[in-house]
Amino acid sequence: MSYIETDLIHAGKTFNASRAVVPPIYQTATYFAEANPEDYLKTATEPRHPYFYHRHGNPVSSQTAELLAKLEGTEAALLTATGMAAISTAVLSVVKAGDHVVAQQSHYSAASILLKELLPQFGVEVSFFDQTDNTSLDAVIRPNTSLIYLETPSNPNLAITDLAYVGASARSRGITTICDNTFASPINQRPADFDIDIVVHSATKYLGGHSDLTAGVICGSQEAVNLAWKKLLSLGGALAPFDAWLLLRGLRTLSLRVKQINANALALAEWFQVHPLIKRVLYCGLPSHPQHQLAKQQMNGFTGMLCIEVDGKDEQEQFVRAQTVLNHLQVFANAASLGEVESLAVHPASMWGLHHSPEQKLKAGINDGMLRISVGIEHIEDLITDFEQGLAQI
Ligand SMILES: *Cc1c(COP(=O)(O)O)cnc(C)c1O
């Protein structure tokens, strides 16, 4: 099958050995051994075998992983218990003591901690580059660089990394690349099409899409995914059987959801752009986004993620006003996470302000009046009306 919409419904079916149209949940830790010891040895050692022991594999995980590999255009995929389990397992399957890693200045917060604190504890040095400036990447690469770690669009400031440039540059030097594709989803962007080696996701977000599970996925070549699987056996982050089943169920509607979310987000961003109380809108689908051209080159749609900056005479007033708007929203839920069917909004300065100095906030692209919005699949008129009445409170 060649179209994503069809793959979403049918890919991976061969792993469903039952006659049930929807696969049963294999809520079991272990499986009966084959009688023949040689067969059992094969089962025990084959990567991701679905019928040995749960940390090794599970039939529904195999079905879901095959679908995700199809979506990302890679040979294989491995499910994990959370997005961070996917990121840490993938990174640790590539680097070893003495290696050098290059990463962006801005990443998902727990990934930043992995890069800035955990890797250096194990003798891996990490350098950071400005993802909006390709020459800054070349400046930090060293002979022992083994990994370039990317995220685009990135959290929280929706900056775009030039995937084709990084992919080609890394391939020519034999450096492995990993890209966190959570914000885009494979409907909007496929990093493997730009020679990125490994694609990771927090499947908690768009892939699952219903705020009812945490999961992660690592997509790549058979070899890369098998190496990650070996690390996962030791790190232990296998995805629970029921959550793999929920993820498969959520994925059925991924394309429908993402298309609706893209359309809602663009309409909302355009509405914000002419609102007198909004100082700035950051949405990579708007021509006013500094990297809109690059986004158009590598993305098929521009996601449901946008940031607005509420206007005010100074930072203090912006901070209070952003909180006032947020507190009065009735359709948008004030909750962390993103990429779900329901619209969500957060005030990054309240969430992270206490942990960040003013310089760190500036560097991370957070300012006091900023609201980060994850648009859902509600009717656009209700989303606009909600912000209209929220902004009327200030
Ligand atoms: C949420 C998120 C993660 C972490 O995923 P969990 O499922 O919460 O572990 C990683 N990267 C990005 C971009 C995210 O949004």
From TrEMBL:
Modified residues (N6-(pyridoxal phosphate)lysine): 205
GO biological process terms held by the UniProt record: cysteine biosynthetic process via cystathionine; transsulfuration
Protein species of origin: Parapedobacter composti
Domain of life according to the entry: Bacteria
Molecular functions per Gene Ontology: cystathionine gamma-lyase activity; pyridoxal phosphate binding
GO CC terms in record: cytoplasm
UniProt similarity note: Belongs to the trans-sulfuration enzymes family.
Pfam families, A to Z: Cys_Met_Meta_PP
UniProtKB keywords: Lyase, Pyridoxal phosphate
SUPFAM superfamilies assigned to the protein according to its UniProt record, in alphabetical order: PLP-dependent transferases
UniProt cofactor(s): pyridoxal 5'-phosphate
CDD domains reported for this sequence: CGS_like
Protein name in UniProt: Methionine-gamma-lyase
